[in-house]
Amino acid sequence: MRILLALTCLALTGPLAAQTYAIRAGTLIDPARGAVEHDQVLVVADGHIKAIGPHPELPPGATPMDLSREWLMPGLIDAHTHLTLTEVVGGSAPFESFYILESTAYRALRGLRNAVGVLAGGFTTVRDVGNAGDYAMDDVRRAIDAGWYQGPTIITCGKIIAPFGGQSHGIPPEQGTFWKYEYLDADGPAEVRKAVRTNLYHGAGVIKLVLDNNRYHYSVEEIRAAVDEAHHAGVPVSVHVFGGEAADNAIEAGVDSIEHGFFLTDAQLTRLRDKGIMLVSTDFPRAHLDIIGTSGGILPPPEVLAPKIIDRLRRAHRLGVHLVFGSDTVMDVAGRSRADLMLDYLAVWRAAGVPPTEVLKSMTSEAAKLLRVAGERGHIAVDAAADLIAMPADPLADTENLRRIDFVMKDGHIVRQGPAAARP
Fold it and tell me: What distance in Å separates the CA atoms of residue 268 and residue 279, rounded to the nearest whole number?
């Protein structure tokens, strides 16, 4: 009996058999093409979209699904997450405390919980950019890829690569180098290359560098070493940087994305645009800044930083920079899901005057390009992965309607199905 029970549990947590569906969409939105079409039917089989049209040929046994009163679009992508990390609202522990207080296993369990939750909220792909203990998020990614759990597509960076000290400040020498649970110290081009290879060994799909969290930062030569090593392996490079000379060095070295960039000048934004470097803008809303603070004095207080973030996003959009949605959400708030907190950032995009069509692109096709999954994800087309979401109101009229997602499909498997998506 015990063996039978164990086998039953194993079957329940293993990969699900893909079904064939005929999904009738009232309105179909594909931000990649700027297309809005009505009364379309999508045939989904083997985890992919097989046909699209008003009257496609339906394979035998296809299960009909009525979304005729819904707006259907590709699943959302967040290009800057820390799913294993949390900052407790009202807490006073320093940033470094999670190095010491939480095991990697505990962090992995939190990461898995958050991964499952953000998928249910409509985020079918995420790029998790570090602060995950001793490669905790890489193990979460492996568990989901193996089909043990239903979660989003996850691109991981391994450990964040940084000059000596990571993002820590003033840890007493007798306390040792606790930050090495979270970061790879790498100084000079040779050490940077070794750090990149270490993360690639653990399955990193992106390499992340931290540039300006201390008084010192990487040189152009050091950043170029990371770019050269990562690009030879077919992996992009992202850099955490706020502005100044460190941002100049990153742009000159040819990185793939700038993370944050709160203090980028118009000249720097123009160079980003001209070099095809994407901005993952992590546009913290004021309410979030008031809760989590501003990194121990590295950044100005919330009342100063919040309008600067809006202004930087407005200028980046006006100058034609390739914008990618990334939230950098690290809070747990009672009564609110991680996905709901991630959607708070949309208010900043509205305040900056970015049209909904471009917001949706930043959360789908533009993000997919940066994550190098554009062939499979971030758009709706024949042979694309069936990562789909639907809601009963138009997100092109108001991006707040993304909070009303009631249907989520991941690789052809139904994750969430509200009353409006009931089978006839």
Answer: 11
From CA 350, how far away is CA 310, in angstroms rounded?
9
Q: Which of 413, 423, 402, 293 is nearest to 341 (CA)?
A: 402
End-to-end CA distance of the chain: 39
Going by C-alpha positions, the residue among 250, 299, 257, 254 that lies closest to residue 278 is: 257
Domain ranges of the chain: 2-74+380-421, 76-371
Predicted local distance difference test score (pLDDT) of residue 209 = 98
Distance CA 99, CA 86 (A): 12
Nearest to 76 by CA among 341, 333, 414, 408: 408
What percentage of the chain reaches a pLDDT higher than 70? 91
Residue 10 has a pLDDT of: 37
Task: Look at the domain 2-74+380-421 and name its fold.
Answer: Urease, subunit C; domain 1 (2.30.40)
Fold type of domain 76-371: TIM Barrel (3.20.20)
pLDDT grade, residue 171 (50/70/90)? Answer: confident
